[in-house]
Amino acid sequence: MTTTTATRDAARVTDAVKVYGSGDTAVRALDGVSVGFPAGRFTAIMGPSGSGKSTLMHCAAGLDTLTSGTARIGGTELGSLDDRRLTLLRRDRIGFVFQAFNLVPTLTVAENITLPMDLAGIKGSRDWIDALVDVVGLRDRLHHRPAELSGGQQQRVAVARAFAGQPEVVFADEPTGNLDSRSGEEVLNLLGRAVRQMDRTVVMVTHDPVAAAHADEVVFLADGRLVDRMESPTADRVLDRMKAFDAKGAPS
Ligand SMILES: Nc1ncnc2c1ncn2[C@@H]1O[C@H](COP(=O)(O)OP(=O)(O)OP(=O)(O)O)[C@@H](O)[C@H]1O
């Protein structure tokens, strides 16, 4: 490697343990995960079903708390924040895209995009939002309501909303899960463009190798542990890596 400056992590978990429940029914969803998500990069989290992907994302993003270990957004340790400050941090410094688009049906596209900022009384940058509207290709739909849009278009609104406040990191949980492959491809291209052309940071949970191939790097989880990382992934290489998990997990 020829890197001379250390990359800054937009988000990071260290020695992350998450146990759901207690006693006989306790599930160790994260079992000592340390992973950083570098600023200005698109990172995908992959792994078999139940490997802890969503738990890792939720804990890294302050939607859930770790049993032990630390989660940081930039230099802020989430465990040190009370509920109010955590809510503000999520609002001001993080964007979210979920499988369900979660748009407000009575509001227009334009209003949906700026809703979190409007609620927070944040003005935001008009130029930024204007550029975003072009990147997501929604200029001619700004005054439509979500019901008048296709699923792919609705998710593009959700992507624009996630980036509207110029957050430090956008977390996306299976953002293409409800979309056909063509619309999914558009949304993934969009996330990639936000990172590469607009210097944003994206962390995406997916179980789709084709989706993961849009990332700069894939981190692989298995049984709540970080087991591998892959730079410049291709769908075939990710698929092969996932098959190796299956083979290992299969009864002999
Ligand atoms: N709220 C909860 N209560 C109890 N167990 C949970 C809870 N959420 C997740 N788990 C368990 O923790 C483990 C990890 O779940 P998680 O949803 O993080 O995995 P995942 O890799 O995202 O799975 P999938 O790809 O199926 O969505 C699983 O065994 C799951 O059943």
From TrEMBL:
Keyword Phosphoprotein: no
Keywords per UniProt: ATP-binding, Nucleotide-binding, Transport
Pfam families, per database record: ABC_tran
Domain ABC transporter residue range list: 11-248
Entries under InterPro entries matching the protein: AAA+_ATPase (IPR003593), ABC_transporter-like_ATP-bd (IPR003439), ABC_transporter-like_CS (IPR017871), ABC_transpr_LolD-like (IPR015854), MacB-like_ATP-bd (IPR017911), P-loop_NTPase (IPR027417)
Residue intervals passing through the bilayer: none
CDD domains associated with the record: ABC_MJ0796_LolCDE_FtsE
GO molecular function: ATP binding
PANTHER family: ABC TRANSPORTER RELATED (PTHR24220:SF685), IMPORT ATP-BINDING PROTEIN (PTHR24220)
Protein name per its UniProtKB record: ABC transporter ATP-binding protein
Species, as recorded: Streptomyces siamensis
Lineage: Bacteria, Bacillati, Actinomycetota, Actinomycetes, Kitasatosporales
